Automatic annotation (TrEMBL):
Function noted in UniProt: Also displays a weak uracil phosphoribosyltransferase activity which is not physiologically significant.
Protein name: Bifunctional protein PyrR
An MF annotation (GO) of this entry: RNA binding
Keywords: Glycosyltransferase, RNA-binding, Transcription, Transcription regulation, Transcription termination, Transferase
PANTHER family named among the record's database cross-references: BIFUNCTIONAL PROTEIN PYRR
Coiled-coil portions: none
Length: 184
């Protein structure tokens, strides 16, 4: 669905709620992994990247330890590549460290069908053999088509398939908000 044909139904999360969710997820990641040893964060391009950077910054505030962060582009791993665009734009994956033997936390904005995460898993495995892969998501909206679930969730949000969850981030959109859109 094209977002230009959509209207805002409701603001679900404002900037302060998003900040609290980032803080909570950072604490949950640290608790589950018993600290930062062998822990890396990898954001799925596009909106997973600033979320991963924010989580890394929050973890550094909490633990005093800077985590390695990377950027994963999944364009060529998508199973809907032919329906996305005639000539899809491929960006660079930027993971300047070895993921073999690491606890990788994949970060993205919305978990919906699970297909983006499946593509990200394929892309990651091509780069090395992590000890463990975990998933941190800002919004889990349900409607899974694959058996994938998030380890860390900012907010669970049951939606209809006709609605669109629009995550806005300062770094990309100029503001922090999660909006629920519906067709006009």
């Amino acid at each position: 669905m094209d977002k230009t044909e959509m209207k805002i139904k409701k603001e679900l999360i404002d900037s302060s709620a998003m900040s609290r969710a980032i803080t909570r997820i950072a604490h949950e990641i640290l608790e589950k992994n018993k600290g930062t040893e062998d822990l890396v964060l990898i954001g799925i391009r596009t909106r997973g990247v600033p979320l991963a950077e924010r989580l890394a910054a929050r973890i550094e505030e909490i633990e005093g330890q800077k985590l390695p962060t990377g950027i994963l582009d999944i364009t060529l791993y998508r199973d809907d590549l032919s329906t996305v665009a005639q000539q899809p734009i491929v960006h660079r994956t930027e993971i300047p460290f070895d993921i073999t033997g690491k606890k990788v936390v994949l970060v993205d904005d919305v978990l919906y069908t699970g297909r983006t995460v499946r593509a990200a898993l394929d892309a990651l495995i091509d780069l090395g053999r992590p000890l463990q892969i975990q998933l941190a998501i800002m919004i889990d909206r349900g409607h899974r088509e694959l058996p994938i679930r998030a380890d860390f969730v900012g907010k669970n949000l049951p939606t209809s398939k006709t609605e669109v969850v629009d995550v806005n981030l300062k770094e990309i959109d100029g503001k922090d908000a999660v909006l629920l859109l519906e067709k006009t």
